[in-house]
Fold each of these.
Amino acid sequence: MIFDRNEKKEVIALLGAGSMGTSIIRRFAAGRQILLGDISEKNLETVGDDLKRSGYSVETMRVDALDRASVGAFAEKAASLGDVMYFVDTAGASPNQSSPEHILKLDMVGTGYAIDAFGKVMARGGAGLVVSSQTGYMMQVPYEVEQQIISTPTEKLMEIPYIKETAMQNSGAAYIVAKRANHLQVQKAAATSWRQRRARINTISPGVIVTPLAYDEFAAAGDAYQTMIDASAAMRTGASDEIAEAGAFLLGEHAGFITGTDLLIDGGTIAAIRCGQYKLEIR
Ligand SMILES: NC(=O)c1ccc[n+]([C@@H]2O[C@H](COP(=O)([O-])OP(=O)(O)OC[C@H]3O[C@@H](n4cnc5c(N)ncnc54)[C@H](O)[C@@H]3O)[C@@H](O)[C@H]2O)c1
């Protein structure tokens, strides 16, 4: 049976078919063509089937966010399906899942590859969203290093001395610097490549959101997370749907004047750290 006879549908591409990404695209993918990209064939099959059974038009493609060519092919595939109006990037790994090098290569360089690739195919009026993290606010990256991150091409980011020395010290530092870099990478794209295509791009920085990735964090550092959650104003974890709500706003028409910025959605964790209610240990 053919559920949707519309041939020319707007395209929404999701890189990282995980919990938060899927919640975000469900908000406005009805009547549009979804393209899912992920390194995990299993995730692609499970999430793709679930979306299809819920009435969405879905194609899937195995993509390795660490590989510029693979990400470029994903963007080209999206463009071949129709006007690419939306791009969401949630491919990432957390501190307790990976080495510092892997985190920096995936969460910073891989994100850069995606921003660059979709900066070549976005349709006029389109919008992008990169999921960064509250951790991007947890350490002050020196101003001159931030300027280097902005001015350095994506494939050379790992050569910045601060990245090679300070950020590589442990997975916590690597994650913080990678997620701060995402804010800067998105600012740069909003002002340059995405601007040229008349498309907007923003980041969201979630706090602790209960997803499979977060369960890996709780298993490795549950006590530290519990103390952080207890010190926050919200005194609870967040849900992917709460991030999706904000994501749908930032991607949607009511956010037409918002580009190159970040929305921190953390239940007040960063406020607690800034005001001395919680002392952060970077491991
Ligand atoms: N869950 C949280 O508490 C939290 C908080 C702040 C930020 N984040 C960030 O949000 C994003 C999404 O996280 P989530 O919690 O939805 O996790 P998730 O594990 O559900 O989703 C991440 C997805 O990225 C995919 N992925 C991993 N490596 C990849 C690669 N090389 N190429 C392509 N895909 C790859 C995974 O297969 C997975 O489907 C991540 O960037 C994460 O760092 C999560």
Amino acid sequence: MSERQTGAWIKALRRLVRQVGLYPTGHPLTMEALLALRTATDDVVPEGGQVVVSAMDNAFFHNRTILPHVSLEYHSFIGELEERGVESMTAVHPVTDQDLLDVAAFLANASADFPADGSILLNERYLTPEDLEATPTSELRRSYVSSLDALRGVTGAMRADGKFEMAPVVQAVEGLFEQSMTQSSASLLLSTVKSHDEYTYYHSVNACILALAIGRMIGIEREHLIPIGVGAVLHDIGKTAVPTATLNYPGRLNDDQWKEITVHPQEGALAILAAGGPGHEISATVAFEHHARFDGSGYPGIHREKRPHVYSRAVAVADTYDAITTRRSYRRAETPNHALNALLMGAGSGYDPDLVRTFIDMMGIYPPGSILEYENGVAVVVSRSSEPGGPLDTLLVRDTQGNDIDPEPYALHPDDVRGQLLAQDSGIDPAALLESMDQAPVG
Ligand SMILES: [Fe+2]
């Protein structure tokens, strides 16, 4: 069993839950989702045996093994299971389609109760406190999850009544800050987590991690660094004031739509000022200026005479880097190395050239999360090399035949890199390797 297989099962289950909640049972999309869950189930439930998937303490478990990355990626689904009172699901071979549909209907709240004697049993087994034991990086993940939660809360509050509470956001960013102090490589690797469904939340937390790292590199004190991080997390919060139809508009925006979009930095800054909190003027400045370019262009168009604040310029670099490395509906993701090149091309016009240089120094030519091909297979960079131009700290994850292998530390010389792969094409998820990194003598 790999985390990937159980992750695929959880993903397929969640998809079926969504479909069952939206469409009647016979709907083609429901049947398609059922088929996908069928396949995923056959991959995880051993013949003649059973498997227990639990959701407890903000994490998914396969039997007793924590699935740290899946827990992060499908964090909101853990909450949904909790709401339905489900802590564990025991799937017994052979699992029937009807039972898969029943469990999905129950989780979708489409049926009130669940048959107690099928091939899937709910809350049959519980994990003990020992099973919930912490891993070295679990605090870092917890901070990440708290930041996602804080952002969900802020977004909900903004949509409901146009204002929000600052305290949970500050607390979450403080957590990210503390963790990134002690585990800087791990936090950079963690910042490669992506979510297609909740793009904005994950992107904002990643931008925050990267902005905190840049800020530390240029010697900004904690007192200012936290509000910068808060500004990074909240940089797009003003988008709650933009009509959804405009935000999701697939084509070229007309003038009116563009006007609607370009108010979001100002709306965000105003909301932050209204919320208050320590250093909130800094956070508001960062949100206000995150689309202002180094040369004074960009929007809101008031920076012609002077440059945006250096804190805003740092967040702009972090924001851009994560956006480029993320897949969106209208364009593919690019490799980390490509994103650095894009920043370099824009240095002096779009971005502060000194900060771009600092950022590249910090990330290395092949930043953490880069998936590299070389003579003996495929390796993922887990932290930047300790000497400029020196070997990269990587984990070897695939052999020359293309088979996945147990991650193995490997010092890869940059000259030996033959090519770079995208996470989405390679099926390799860099952030999922955090656990292997804990054991590896790197970072
Ligand atoms: Fe924005």
Amino acid sequence: MNSLVKNENHDVLVSLCDAGVVSGLRWLVRDVSFDVRRGEIVTIIGPNGSGKSTTAKMALGIVKPNSGTVHRKKNLKIGYVPQKLSIDSTLPLPVHRLMTLTSQLDKSSMITALRLTGMFTLLNSDVKSLSGGELQRVLIARAIALKPDFLMLDEPARGLDLTGALSLYQLVTKIRNELNCAVLIISHDLHLVMSATDQVICLNGHVCCQGPPTAVVENEEYQKLFGTYRPDLLSVYEHEHDHVHLSDGRVKHKDGSITPHFRDFSLSDRKINKEASEFC
Ligand SMILES: Nc1ncnc2c1ncn2[C@@H]1O[C@H](COP(=O)(O)OP(=O)(O)OP(=O)(O)O)[C@@H](O)[C@H]1O
Ligand SMILES: [Mg+2]
């Protein structure tokens, strides 16, 4: 009887079974098996060249497996932030234009996604002027604007400092909670994503170990590749903030007062919204 009850935890969106890719005479990655379910955050870790991006592309259907199988749920809506993205640096490209380059997006969905990632105030900024962390958040906004079931993020925290990376992983959890989507994320920093991850796949040309993060960090294969997990090394970075950064860029202080945080400090919400309605 239980099998007839629809349980979202058993809603497998993507499933790889002994999947592998060959190029020439070489296996780029082989024998990869894992499921990604709705509401789950799955992290792939592994050294450079270990087949993480290739595995992600198999999961998305961009690369076909030469062995094994990859199944995706029918009509699965996918959001993808690739590891590499080439943006033409000769032409100005405002954020709102980047958001709509490859998909038809209504204004309200765009604004919702930019607000969720905290990037709404950068709507008219030139993409070239964004910091690394801002660009990643804008790319994530672009990937989630159509409310995907399955979000694939290939090294979203690369180039970010520790605080930036932690805050980005917090954003990933927030997105998962808001959209109830599955997230497959590639990261080199398991210690940073640990608390947000349900399942870890440790790759090195094949799956070295997999399971819940607490089990993976204790695994001998993992420790051979990445060393021993030292949560105490992170504790020095813990500090208390006496203010909160709101999603529109303003800062709310402990006493409840709010500082605007926009290029024109006199700019009101009304004016920001007017700009938003005029951008295209
Ligand atoms: N299109 C391709 N054709 C041939 N070989 C490829 C192709 N793409 C990747 N490879 C090779 O496959 C192996 C795995 O590459 P992949 O990009 O999946 O690694 P990765 O784990 O994502 O590495 P990184 O951490 O550096 O991003 C590498 O040896 C790479 O040179
Ligand atoms: Mg890669």
Amino acid sequence: MLAAAGYFLPKLEGCSPATYAVFKTDIVDKKITIPLAMFATSPIQFVRPKGWYYDIAVQKRDENNYTALLLQCTHQENQLIPAGNNGYSCSLHGSQFDVNGIVRKGPAEKRLEQYTTKIQDNNLVIEILKTP
Ligand code: FES
């Protein structure tokens, strides 16, 4: 099923700034659909719609609660990188965001874009109503 929905990029592949596994997939009808089974190995997964520069961090909070944050710095749109359990950081000017996308350190002032998620069958559906 994973092969049908997308594929994983190996670490450090291509020109992506990502140093973690990224699940590439398509947006269909303004939605990304990923199998819930992806979260069996880790509560956080990174997804990148084909053609996007930015990843979406999808985190399992509990069985029925998932969040999806766009890893685009709200200061000057740099791709963010995960900072362990401390959220996400920006290598350009040092902004930091917590795991909920709230600014912990500027110069960024706005929280990260968060997408609505819902569980449908054995999948997580992320609604992409706004593209970066
Ligand atoms: S672009 Fe991220 S802190 Fe400036």
